[in-house]
Amino acid sequence: MRRTKILATVGPATAEERALVRLIEAGADGFRLNFSHGSDEEHRTLLRRMHAAAAHLHREVAIVADLQGPKIRIGDLRAPPHRLVDGTEWWLDNTGQPGDEHRVSVTLPDLAHAVRPQDAILVGDGSIELTVERVAGESVVTRVVHGGLITPHAGLFLPSAHLRTEILGPKDRADLRIALSEGIDFVALSFVRQASDISSVRHQLDHSGHRQVGLIAKIERAQALERIHSILEAADGIMVARGDLGIEVPLERLALEQKRLVAQSNAAHKLVIVATQMLLSMITSPRPTRAEATDVANAVLDGADAVMLSEESAVGQYPMESVGWLDRICRATELAAVRGEVTIRVPTVSDRALEHSVAQAAVDLADTLGAAAIITPTHSGRTARLVASRRPRTPVLALSSEPAARRRLALTWGVQTRPTPKHLSLDALRALAIRLALELPGTRAGSPVVMTAGYPIEGRPTNLVTVLTAHDPGAPRPPPRGHPRGPAAPHGSAGPARAAGASLG
């Protein structure tokens, strides 16, 4: 079983339903749709096909809607490609007309008021560098410091400018309405700067009846690094978007920032996705480079919940092979960790709240007993995330009656999900846990199984850890040991187990 999850971006190369089915079969646990490209109708069609592909395979697949956000871009180009030559002038304006090697339109209306002479401007992946010479009316005249090929709609970065931009522009709000109407599990917010960016979108989701949709903050701005603790408190997870972040911070510090972000997210028990150029060479090659394979393995060792493909699966020539290689590298790295050859980073947890203590107790028990599984009934997915954040060696099986919760957990490290009825007595929950544990590969009759639950009444927070024995349902059960009234809850007295309803944490 692979613990690190795979998120694949869907695009022209994988737009057909059959291709999406093959991505899942190759190992994809989630799909990302980049709303920076494509029409409204194309977005609706792709989202419907994603759902159909998951239903075809009876799989819980997370769907992430990645909104464009307040990114500044150049406009269309006349008969591209065009090359900017060192030392030449390049004019930036707001005319909306297609550009060339002499001028281009940009998406920031007040660009002329946002820059000053000698400000640096970076284009695309940052390899093209401009310097502001002067402002001419509503246009900005720049000098090319380092030239290169320009492509339509490339990003424009102004490291010295302090821009006041909303986290959701008109296009983002329209895209969000489409995504929500078609059913998504996460919204990825681009260019998050502070926690209030997350809170404002959360307010919109809550008041539109989409409280169950998770929010992922894409960390692409240096400002976000300075405020990462408050961002993690407000968000359901983060994406380490190394493309734009690598322009905002010194390139020699990018790997260090990635490790810090993954560690901080793990410590906060939040989802963390490592993204951008994981297997970039596989856009045109059937095999990754050695450096790329090392990069993926390091993301696994850092403790990432998921690794993400972008162009590789969206427009590349080998999308299925790209997913397959991620799967192979992740599995090999995780197996090495099990054998003790390497160590996957486990966060230090100091929180002594009840739910954290229960999660830690479940992991410790499973490790000590060599349990076949940790079974975590859960309503929202939180209990399963808390257990998984400890990076246990034991498989984590989350039981939930909520399809949305099961889909969100598809991107959480080490968690498998199964559907369950909404209301179960503790006895029924124990029987279900044993049956499901026996279905896991490698589980033998007599193997211990660790289970968490809320006890003794429906709606109680997760407050119980118990050890079950996986037994053959057709064989006679051994007599119960210990107190005849069943396992005791750590806090408070417990009524008879047969009458009590177990709650989902």
Keywords:
505 residues; alpha/beta; M1 Pyruvate Kinase, Domain 3; Pyruvate Kinase, Chain: A, domain 1; 16 helices; 23 strands; 34% helix
Summarize the structure.
About 35% of the residues lie in helices and about 20% in strands. With about 500 residues, the protein is α/β, with parallel strands linked by helices.
What would the CATH topology of the largest domain be? TIM Barrel
Note the beta-strand portion: 15-25%
Strand order of the largest sheet: 1-2-3-12-13-14-15-16
Number of domains: 3
Main beta sheet strand tally, sense and closure? 8 strands, parallel, barrel
Shape: elongated
- Helicity level, as a percent range? 25-40%
Based on helices, strands and strand pairing, what is the structural class? alpha/beta
List the helices and strands and how they pair.
Elements: E1 5-10, H1 17-26, E2 30-34, H2 40-57, E3 62-66, E4 82-84, E5 89-93, E6 103-105, H3 111-114, E7 120-123, E8 128-136, E9 139-146, E10 148-150, E11 156-157, H4 170-182, E12 186-189, H5 195-207, E13 214-219, H6 222-226, H7 228-234, E14 237-241, H8 242-248, H9 254-267, E15 271-275, H10 290-302, E16 306-309, H11 311-314, H12 319-338, H13 354-369, E17 374-377, H14 382-388, E18 396-400, H15 403-408, E19 415-419, E20 424-425, H16 426-439, E21 448-454, E22 462-469, E23 501-502
Parallel strand pairs: 1-2, 1-16, 2-3, 3-12, 5-6, 12-13, 13-14, 14-15, 15-16, 17-18, 17-21, 18-19
Antiparallel strand pairs: 4-10, 5-9, 7-8, 7-11, 8-9, 20-23, 21-22
